[in-house]
């Protein structure tokens, strides 16, 4: 019952957030990023409220339209389950979504990469995926996001957040981990998004094994090292109240807890869960199975409150 209530509450908050998103400055120092994003401390601007908020939010007419390509890492065994759910839910709301696998499937469709399946080859799959995107789509889009086939993305909130960022700067965004890489790195499962300048640097220099490991290791760590070697900064994606937009677990964990012990080493010992730590304009969650993808699709794009009843209640 608690999990169901949490999903309903999250769905309502995200539904509101799709219309009123705002972002703070893109790049901040790591100390402030750690304080806001990693330790769960809520920063409240003067005059702020929990909806990130209408006082400081930009009006829709102030938005800069951005085009975002999202590519999804999948496999032949997941094509008719996880990848199918992505395609039929949040993938429909993207500017463009493409699927990379180890095999080409012209009916789905997927783009086959010359990489064997398995976790030990995720780095090669990611490197080749971004290289394909650079070679074929660099001039057509402003931002480029990688996601897994069990990542749930809210493209409207992604575009809203990115509309306030500068794609000409070398920057990328995601769910921040503080360890291993000097400037930190972003969770692969939560998805991360590269600016056009970040992708340009990768496309021009990413084949150099001295700068980017071509296979092996942990995909998200290796991308983090690669970006750092290119001078691409790890950007801050927390909202105006310091709450997170990208998430490495599913909504239940971030709403109801608890986190696994390793997570505190990666993000800080004071990491918190609950609605006060999740932005109403959240962009992604991880470990979302197909059934929950369809559930979130219903909450976000179909469920509505009665406007007439709201007017009646407001007059009381």
TrEMBL record:
Main subcellular localisation: membrane
Q: Name one GO cellular component term.
A: membrane
The lineage is: Eukaryota, Metazoa, Spiralia, Lophotrochozoa, Mollusca
Report which superkingdom the organism of origin falls in. Answer: Eukaryota
Topology relative to the lipid bilayer, per the entry, is:
Single-pass type II membrane protein
Record keywords: Disulfide bond, Glycoprotein, Glycosyltransferase, Manganese, Membrane, Metal-binding, Nucleotide-binding, Signal-anchor, Transferase, Transmembrane, Transmembrane helix
Q: Which residues form the Fringe-like glycosyltransferase domain?
A: 68-235
The reply on keyword Iron-sulfur is no
Where is the protein localized?
Membrane
* Name listed for the protein in its UniProt record: Glycoprotein-N-acetylgalactosamine 3-beta-galactosyltransferase 1
Cite the Pfam families for this sequence.
Fringe
Keyword presence, Membrane? yes
From which source organism is this entry? Biomphalaria pfeifferi
What assembly does the database describe for this protein? Homodimer; disulfide-linked.
Q: Which cofactor does it need?
A: Mn(2+)
| Similarity remark | Belongs to the glycosyltransferase 31 family. Beta3-Gal-T subfamily.
